[in-house]
Amino acid sequence: MEDKINNYFKYIEHHLKNRPYRLSYAIASFISRRLFSSVEVIGLKELARQRKNETAQGIKTLNLYIARHLSEFDWQEIQRVLAGENLMAAIQAGDNLFMGPLDPLLRHHGAFKVFRSQARIFSEHWLLNSIYGTLDAFWHDPLLKKLLSSIRLKQRKPVIIEPLLAKDIYVAYMKHLIDVEKRDILIFPEYLKLSDKKIKYGRSYSGKLLEFTPLIFKLLRDINKKTERILQIVPVNVSYERVVEDQSFKTLEKMQSNKITKRFVYLVDYFFNYTHWIYQRQKGRVVIKFGQPVLLRKAMDFKIRLHDDIRNKVGLLQTVFPTQIIAYAFHNKDVLSDAELIKRVEKTLSELKKIGADVRFAEKLSTLQIIESAYTHFDLHQKRRLLIYDEGKKQHKVIRHDVLSQYRNHIDHLFEKWYEPERLMKIIDIFRDGNDAKNF
Question: For labelling, which of 24, 149, 353, 389 has a CA lying 20 to 30 Å from the CA of 395?
Answer without folding.
Answer: 353
